[in-house]
Write a structure and sequence with these properties.
- The strands form 2 sheets. This protein has a 5-stranded mixed beta barrel. A two-stranded antiparallel sheet has the order 2-3.
- It is about 25% helix and about 25% strand.
- By secondary structure, it is α+β, with helices and mostly antiparallel strands.
- The longest helix has 14 residues, at about 90-105.
């Protein structure tokens, strides 16, 4: 049986410049959206209960993460379906995968690293520009950050660093020390443990 839904806190897409938008919400893979139920829990309707989506399904299962990620908007009416708001571009898919794996609980999520504790209901804050108008607009992502960052402030000075070791050039251009960013990430997502 589905668990009680966490009250959504998604911020509306707010312009931060003439063409950039910011959006906070659940991240869901296109494969699970298209099938209508979660791959690892077929009793759960994908767009009814995104908070029940395991990080294992989202980040470990190749058919899921290779299908790309979408951002979901809360239902227009109580009890309704979440809305497919944006489809992330290739860069956004990579950044979402990296952020998810950095915050997911190792052992539950086999590709997760670090000391993350999140098990279900992955959310994030994305910034970017809409590059294609379609049923689900495509978002060219400029940055992705933990959900708690939100859209009210200025854009982050650095996008999420990939989980792989940084190259010499990326280590010299990052504006946020990796150890400081990692501490922020772990502390932020510990508050959102939905297990």
């Amino acid at each position: 049986a589905p668990t009680a839904a966490v009250a959504p806190t998604a911020a509306p897409a707010a312009p931060t410049s003439a063409s950039e938008i910011c959006f906070e919400g659940f991240v869901m893979d296109t494969f699970c959206i298209d099938r209508g139920t979660l791959l690892d829990n077929s009793a759960v309707q994908t767009l009814k209960n995104p908070e029940a989506h395991s990080l294992h399904c989202l980040l470990d299962v190749s058919v899921c993460y290779e299908s790309g990620f979408e951002m979901l908007e809360p239902p227009a009416a109580a009890g309704g379906d979440y809305i497919r708001k944006y489809k992330l571009d290739d860069k956004g898919n990579k950044l979402a995968l990296d952020l998810g794996r950095a915050t997911g609980q190792p052992g539950v999520c086999s590709t997760c690293s670090g000391t993350g504790t999140q098990v279900k209901g992955f959310r994030a804050t994305v910034r970017g520009t809409v590059t294609a108008a379609s049923k689900v607009p495509i978002l060219a992502v400029t940055s992705i950050a933990p959900s708690a960052v939100g859209c009210s402030g200025p854009a982050p000075t650095a996008a999420v660093a990939p989980t792989a070791a940084p190259s010499e050039s990326s280590a010299t251009t990052s504006t946020v020390p990796h150890s400081m960013f990692y501490a922020l990430l772990v502390g932020t997502f510990a508050a959102f443990n939905l297990s």
